[in-house]
Amino acid sequence: MDLDVFVSVHRAEWDRLDALLRRRRRLGGAEADELVVLYQRTATHLSLIRSSAPDPQLTGRLSQLVARARNAVTGTRRASWRDVTRFLGRGFPAAVYRARHWWVPTALVSTAVAILLGWWIGAHPDIQSSIAAPSRLRDLTRPGGEYETYYSSHPASAFAAQVWTNNAQAAAMCLVLGVFLGLPVLFILFENMLNLGVGFGLMSSAGRLDTFLGLVLPHGLLELTAVFVAAGTGLRLGWTLIDPGPRTRRTALAEEGRSAIAMAIGLALVLFVSGAIEGFVTPSGLPTWARIGIGIAAELAFLAYVFVLGGRAARAGEAGDLGAGERSASVPTAA
């Protein structure tokens, strides 16, 4: 290819494309069609120059021109409040609803494990002594002890922010680490249930289980549900590696991974609510029944949000993934 001749033949087309791009907001129908045609031609010219007569300066100019034209032709989609509304009103609750066969059993089994651990620790003084010295256990469980003062040890706003950050991080780890066959998720989940079981067992052995439940339930119901949702979704992601179903493994992981990322964003908002309850309601002077009532109301609201709103969206075809027009096309495979 004679590069000088090629440039002299096509320079006018490139200059015309550049001129159209500079005023594309004021283009008429014919000019818009011309822009598309010139974009296609210039992309072809760029490919020919790269393969036959690479010239860094010319390649750089045409690459920039083609990129600008591509943005003008295809458009750049920007997130809007409509996207936020769709995500909160349909995408997120539908994704949680679709994962219910994973996180509901996870919640039931984990709660049973925590209760059994609590009973085991509370019924065996030798197990308690292996956890800490008797004086230390008394400091933890006595009236005004560390189990009670923990929730009022810092200003409410700072404490709520810290709790929210820690819980959101744990939930995100469950979602992301699920890709390792779900094994890290089981460890994180067991660690959380062990901590809950230790508190349950120590406070019950001290005859103060009612105080413990009055401190944990207001925020713990919603907080633990969010953790269970994250863990169940992480386990489902891990299982996708083993059994992708009728999809290719790559496609299945992409779809479930995008859903998990969206789940992490939604659960961060849920954990923000539970963190606010833990920071402002749990240590408040409200009666125990009122604090627990707030926790139950928040939990029921979330479950209604998932099973009513999310169930309706899921039955309408919402999957909590990108829209059909935003996903890469894929070829279905036989089951």
Write the layout of secondary structure elements.
Elements lengths: L2 H20 L6 H24 L3 H19 L6 H18 L1 H24 L1 H7 L2 H8 L4 H4 L6 H22 L5 H23 L3 H34 L6 H33 L6 H28 L20
Helix pairs in contact: 1-2, 1-3, 2-3, 4-12, 4-13, 5-10, 5-11, 9-10, 9-11, 9-12, 10-11, 11-12, 11-13, 12-13
What is the structure about, briefly put?
The chain is mainly alpha-helical and 335 residues long. It has 13 helices and no strands.
**Gap from first CA to last CA:** 51 Å
Helical content stands at: over 70%
Q: Segments where pLDDT lies below 50 for 5+ residues?
A: 322-335
Quaternary class: single chain
Describe the structure.
The protein is mainly alpha-helical and 335 residues long. Helix content is 79%, strand content 0%. It is built from 13 helices and no strands. The chain has helices at 3-22, 29-52, 56-74, 81-98, 100-123, 125-131, 134-141, 146-149, 156-177, 183-205, 209-242, 249-281, 288-315. The two termini are 51 Å apart.
Task: Name a few traits of the molecule.
mainly alpha; 13 helices; elongated
